[in-house]
Queue: 2 jobs
Job 1
Amino acid sequence: MSRPCPCTSKQPYDRCCGPFHAGTARPATAEQLMRSRFSAYALAKVDYLIATRSEAKRALENRDELAQYCKSVSCVGLKIVHKEKGGPADDAGIVTFQASLQANGRRSLHIETSSFARESGRWVYVDGVVKE
Ligand SMILES: [Zn+2]
């Protein structure tokens, strides 16, 4: 009884982002971390969003604001547009993605180039540049 993963990978949640959220597995690639953060937004897993931010940026995250944001928006779809490095043997990576979001009945496209790094062996989100 597994639902499809909210990161729209067409995989069951239990075999996609679920184990990352549960802490029973770690993303091996920057893309996996990115997808798991997208599905964490979809499922309002605020702790996961904070834990997967780089240490230097973690203080920027506001728990209440994140929770509010997760509630206000529906994460409709995710498309990976471009990747650089971010593989199991890399220490850094860049992922450009398109997230389809819906808020107040309006669809919007969030296009972002995110950078990821490995800290103490685990992938974290460093920062992103949003395409206007
Ligand atoms: Zn997933």
Job 2
Amino acid sequence: MAEHENGENLRTVFGPVPSRRLGQSLGIDPLPGGKTCNWNCIYCQLGRTRPLVNERRAYVPVEKILADVRRALGSLEPTEVDWITFVASGETLLHSGMGELILAVKEMAPYPVAVITNGSLLSVPEVRRELLPADAVMPSLDAGQAKLFKKITRHHPDLDFQQHVDGLVAFREQYTGQLWVETMLMRGVNDSEEQLRDLAAVVARIRPDSLHLVSPTRPPVEPWVQPVGDEALARARAILGDVVTILQERPGVFELGEEEDPATAVLDIIVRHPMREDLLREALSHWQEGVVDQVLAELARDPRAQVVERFGCRFWSGSRQIYPDQAPD
Ligand code: SF4
């Protein structure tokens, strides 16, 4: 974790990027020094978690993150941002300064603030308190029983399913903002009728404002993870009820500004959001054909980028992301 030692050169603010739920979202990554997570989800787009980390600390100084946010906001028109979103390269709430960061960002700008988290630390009262000023919190819940939860999240040994659910229930009792729980549905993993009924029972206890159903569109770390089809989504909606919002995205279409160096801009994006090659070409299409090919050739030579194949497509991703088919155990 040496890269976290001072974090001065790491980029903590990115975007605005288009988000399915949040319009144009200015992202803040409080853990930019390499994937830092207490889960190792089978569907993670950031590669495998090595090692699992469950320690809360200031991986990057709060002052450095706030200076980056201030700089980014200073260069944007008010109409260019809808939300400010904390979303880490890993588990957002592992940064111990999150409470301070949320308050400071809300003071700095008039935009609503969202926090994307796996929710694993919501069983800690202090963490719940820190999140109360956020306008929306989006924790994960991919299973309604312990064995499946562990199979999917491959979580740190200090965590467990019951603790996770209890944390979500306790948070809902305190929190008056929007609680949008997110479930990743995967074919043959968590989409059976019985599994969805288990999930529905837990969701009924949590009482989120919405349950967002998603399915993998970016490259899952494990090559056997597959998205669900329309039939499974319809089954899920029938079982889980009106709380469900199905989020289907055309993944990864980004507007890259004319003023940016295209290869650098693409690298900045793919380390956090791997992109399908055809959509990357589309995002670059306002440059001439020759420029697009040149950018892809530059990326192919760049040690910071790699190609990973999933669902029969080529995706561009950061080279630090560990995929088992590229780097077998
Ligand atoms: S999907 Fe999120 S919670 Fe799961 S391993 Fe990746 S970063 Fe961690």
